[in-house]
Write a sequence for this structure.
């Protein structure tokens, strides 16, 4: 899922401060009732496109960072992906780390989506996310295998330490082990998307085949609130690379893990960044790239939006205007004059300039040429996010390397779940599991190294 480009994992961390006059005052309401009402009214403001009114309620910091035009751009970018907002369906509230979190379930033209609004103790909005709506009937996760055990671990230390799960085969011995590196967005350790949990599937399938697996909460999920003030300076180093390296280091110090057989598996954005991870850790035994893009991220985003616009037929004037705007943003990323001072409103999906500058000059296949460890590339042929064009890009550039393996699967999508026809965002809301042949191919490759 190129950064924020998995269309059901779009997220935004804000720090909004609504004024009471915007939301009105309520008497004799419980705290949960009040924050749910505030969240519904906030979503109503977005749906009415009253961005100027909303910005007037921001605190000074966010007023400077998120003027009306930028808030409008964020909202309209979301609508290009999921269609117009038809209605609000329901709300639910929970308390997390002292914050009141409200999920406003909404029906959009193309897909259901929850607007997740986080309130602090002063009932100011401290976070805003757009996340998949859980299905009403989610299939229960498979029970833990009798042949393996899950162990809670901590990746790194200090303020950015991450909680994770190490899955180990029960039988005696020292096992090869794999670190799972997420795609874009604030993913949990299972890389949950709707009812689907591809990293859980990989962990259970690989441990059943005698391979230990380490998966963990992504930094942008576990430390979302702490990262909010730093979002303008965030790069893939802090988002992904540093924690993958720490996870591999932890495995080398883990009992019953063979320290000479540590592998790193990257999915989507994680796959795209595998070669940057690889050049920083020469002791890794091998790398697995699942649906990793071989092209510039801004080009991938443009292709994804173009594909989505094609799903429902004719290119309307509104779609054309939005597509033209994205093309201008992509061109802005490529301009030599791009600097850290360039407003994020001028760049694709509102991603800050420092993020793009960090990726400038990064050509994943060229970096891969310098890796000595074996590489395994896996690709779903129905994937519209990292496409067969990306897969071909890897093959073309790495054809001279003898320790590279390529395999694609005709029926699989971006999550390596089976389906039919053209893949769509709504497909991610259909319960499924990572195809057994993918897990078997990974296990066979690892054991052959």
């Amino acid at each position: 899922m190129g950064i924020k480009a998995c269309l059901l994992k779009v997220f935004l961390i804000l720090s909004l401060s609504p004024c009471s006059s915007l939301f009105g005052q309520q008497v004799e309401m419980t705290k949960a009732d009040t924050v749910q009402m505030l969240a519904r009214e906030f979503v109503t403001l977005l749906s009415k496109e009253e961005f100027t009114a909303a910005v007037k309620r921001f605190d000074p910091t966010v007023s400077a960072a998120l003027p009306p035009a930028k808030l409008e751009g964020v909202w309209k970018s979301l609508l290009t992906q999921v269609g117009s907002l038809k209605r609000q369906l329901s709300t639910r509230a929970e308390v997390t780390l002292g914050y009141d979190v409200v999920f406003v379930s909404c029906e959009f033209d193309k897909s259901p989506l929850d607007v997740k609004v986080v309130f602090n103790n002063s009932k100011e909005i401290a976070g805003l996310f757009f996340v998949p709506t859980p299905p009403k009937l989610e299939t229960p996760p498979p029970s833990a295998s009798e042949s393996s055990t899950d162990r809670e671990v901590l990746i790194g230390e200090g303020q950015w330490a991450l909680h994770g799960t190490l899955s180990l085969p029960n039988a005696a011995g020292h096992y090869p082990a794999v670190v799972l590196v997420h795609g874009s967005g604030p993913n949990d350790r299972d890389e949950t998307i709707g009812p689907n949990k591809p990293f859980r599937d990989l962990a259970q399938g690989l441990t059943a085949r005698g391979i230990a697996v380490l998966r963990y909460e992504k930094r942008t999920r576990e430390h979302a609130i702490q990262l909010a003030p730093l979002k303008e300076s965030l790069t893939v180093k802090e988002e992904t690379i540093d924690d993958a390296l720490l996870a591999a280091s932890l495995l080398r110090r883990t009992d019953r893990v063979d320290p000479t057989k540590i592998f790193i598996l990257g999915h989507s954005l994680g796959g795209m960044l595998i070669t940057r991870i690889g050049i920083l850790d020469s002791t890794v035994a091998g790398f697995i790239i699942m649906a990793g893009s071989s092209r510039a991220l801004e080009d991938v985003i443009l292709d994804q939006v173009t594909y989505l616009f094609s799903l429902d037929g004719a290119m309307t004037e509104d779609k054309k205007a939005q597509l033209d705007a994205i093309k201008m943003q992509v061109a802005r990323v490529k301009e030599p004059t791009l600097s850290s001072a360039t407003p994020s409103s001028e760049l694709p999906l509102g991603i800050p300039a420092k993020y793009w500058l960090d990726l400038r000059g990064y050509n994943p296949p060229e970096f891969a040429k310098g890796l000595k460890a074996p590489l395994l590339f896996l690709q779903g042929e129905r994937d519209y996010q990292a496409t067969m064009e990306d897969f071909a890009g890897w093959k073309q550039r790495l054809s001279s390397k003898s320790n590279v393996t390529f395999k694609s699967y005709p029926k699989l999508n971006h999550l390596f779940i089976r389906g039919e026809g053209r893949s769509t965002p709504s497909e991610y809301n259909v319960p499924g599991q990572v195809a057994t042949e993918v897990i078997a191919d990974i296990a066979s490759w690892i054991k052959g190294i």
The chain has two domains: 11-132, 148-297+354-448. Residues 317-334 form the longest helix (18 residues). The first strand starts at residue 11 and ends at 12. The two ends are 28 Å apart (CA to CA).
